[in-house]
Amino acid sequence: MADEARGMAVTLLDAVLGEGKLLSQALADLPAAAAPAERARAQRLASSVLRHLGPADRLLAPHLRKAPPLTVRNILRLATVEMAADGAAPHGVVSSAVDLARRGRRTQHLAGLVNAVLRRIAPASFAGLPAQHLPMWLRQPLVRRWGRAVVTAIEAVQAAPPPLDLTARPGLSAPGEPLPTGSFRLRAPGQVSALPGYEAGQWWVQDAAAALAVKLLDPQPGEAVADLCAAPGGKTLQLAAAGARVTALDISEARLGRLRENLARTGLQAEVVAADLLTWQGGPFEAILLDAPCSATGTIRRHPDLPFVKDGSELPSLVALQAAMLDHALGLLAPGGRLVFCTCSLLEEEGEAQLAALLERHPELTVERPTLPGVEPDWIGAEGGLRLRPDLWAEAGGMDGFFMARVRRP
Ligand SMILES: C[S@@+](CC[C@H](N)C(=O)[O-])C[C@H]1O[C@@H](n2cnc3c(N)ncnc32)[C@H](O)[C@@H]1O
Fold first, then answer.
1. CA of 229 to the centre of ligand 1 (A)
2. Whether 276 and 325 share a structural domain
3. Where does the chain bind S-adenosyl-L-methionine (predicted)?
4. Which position among 72, 228, 259, 344 bears the catalytic label?
5. What is the crossing angle of helices 70-84 and 90-103, to 10°?
6. SS3 letters across 131-176
7. CB 298 near ligand 1, within 6 Å
8. Per the domain annotation, does 140 fall within a domain?
9. Rounded-to-integer distance, Cα 100 and Cα 371, Å
10. Does the beta carbon of 286 sit less than 6 angstroms from any atom of ligand 1?
């Protein structure tokens, strides 16, 4: 029998690869009646296929004379990845794939092909194939900048499901292995809400790289601090837990709902503002965090659908928005105040070049270089920004890609 999760995984793949939907959107479109555990398994399966799509297609190619319809291709890809990458027993996987094909009106005539192809592929040769490549629009500038070896290392990290990182409140610890920068890491977390300390709000989920932006800002108890693109609020929680008086602003009411839930669970306080930063007036603030909207190319290991849905065409408008946000945010900063700008992007335009352009527009600013526990000197660029890449700490499971820099006004 084809199980429900595998059927939903194929639906998710059809939506991402056929309709260009984000996985989060496709998940929201699944039938409301589907059991949460089956939805979660479908998401895991679809994510695994997206992480290994290139290698799976290479295993399948010699056995397909012409490309079958997308749903059949996705049934084949799912079964191939389950057998080759996830180590599932072939018998159950093949019979489930054949059942899935039989169930669909437009796929049932190809059930025999699914059976024949899956019996012929060689899962063992998967291990020798290169990891899924980044899309060319992203790969090329990264190869030019860091070379092929670094990009290959980034792709290797992105092929594995990411670990789960937790940030603990100051003075407390969280489940998992402590990391050099102060976060905690779980390799196989299971259900997050069942982990000790979740209910009491002793920690929250936050990638170790993302957690460094607030550490770089170094909020002090009682300081007036603005988090200007705040939702869903991982960094707001860090600022509030440090004892700062936090204003958390975001344009999205829906995302602010999640920020309010996070504050309620942890019992932390912040003034929450729903507004467009570009026109909002407030402050002055002693410290500002600007975690601006960006290409999110540093988060592909968590969002393996991004390379199939994005084509880089949004980049110029994102870069312009970030620059406008930076200029507006500087006007909210008190004399002598500091601002941390960060993006979860791998691209120079949204990081090092954005900082260089800011300093050209505002020569009065000075960059304050990071001096943080666990941060290696060669992660810091000539201009004083911190460049984090997924292949750093590769042995321990990597980290999200980020750029962050701290500037101070006179
Ligand atoms: C990278 S996310 C922020 C993540 C957040 N700092 C965290 O750690 O959880 C960027 C945020 O910018 C918000 N945003 C986009 N345009 C905005 C605008 N014009 N004004 C305020 N917020 C905006 C988005 O709604 C999104 O929540």
1. 4
2. yes
3. 229-235, 250, 291
4. 344
5. 170
6. CCCCCHHHHHHHHHHHCHHHHHHHHHHHCCCCCEEEEECCCCCCCC
7. no
8. no
9. 55
10. no
Q: Give the annotated binding-site residues for S-adenosyl-L-methionine.
A: 229-235, 250, 291
Residue 139: burial class (beta carbons within 10 Å; 0-12, 13-18, 19+) = middle
Residue 142 forms part of a structural domain:
no
Which pLDDT band holds residue 388 (cuts at 50, 70, 90)? very high
Residue 159 lies in a domain: no
Closest by CA position to 163, among listed 207, 195, 197: 207
Considering only CA atoms, which residue is closest to atom 19 of ligand 1? 276
Q: Are strands 402-408 and 366-368 parallel, antiparallel or unpaired?
A: antiparallel
Distance (angstroms) between ligand 1 centre and the Cα of 296 equals: 12
Judgement on whether residues 195 and 320 belong to the same structural domain of the protein: yes
User: Which residues, 6 or more positions from 123, have their beta carbon under 8 angstroms from its beta carbon?
Assistant: 59, 80, 83, 84, 90
**Where a domain ends, among 106, 128, 150?**
128
Distance 339 CA to ligand 1 centre (A): 16
- Looking at the predicted structure, is the pLDDT value of residue 110 above 60? yes
Average the pLDDT over 127-147 and give the result. 97
pLDDT of residue 189: 77
Residue 95's domain comprises 4-128
ipTM: 0.99
For ligand 1, what atom is nearest to the CA of residue 293?
A: 10
User: Would you call 54 exposed, middle or buried from its count of C-beta atoms within 10 A (0-12, 13-18, 19+)?
Assistant: middle
Amino acid in position 245: R
Q: Which atom of ligand 1 is nearest to the CA of 227?
A: 6
- For residues 293 and 363, membership in a common domain is answered with yes
AA identity, residue 112: G
CA dist 183 and 215 (Å) reads 11
344 annotated active-site:
yes
Residue 326 lies in a domain: yes
Number of domains, the chain: 2
Provide the token pair at 4.
């429900």
Q: Is 237 in the pocket of ligand 1 (CB under 6 A)?
A: no
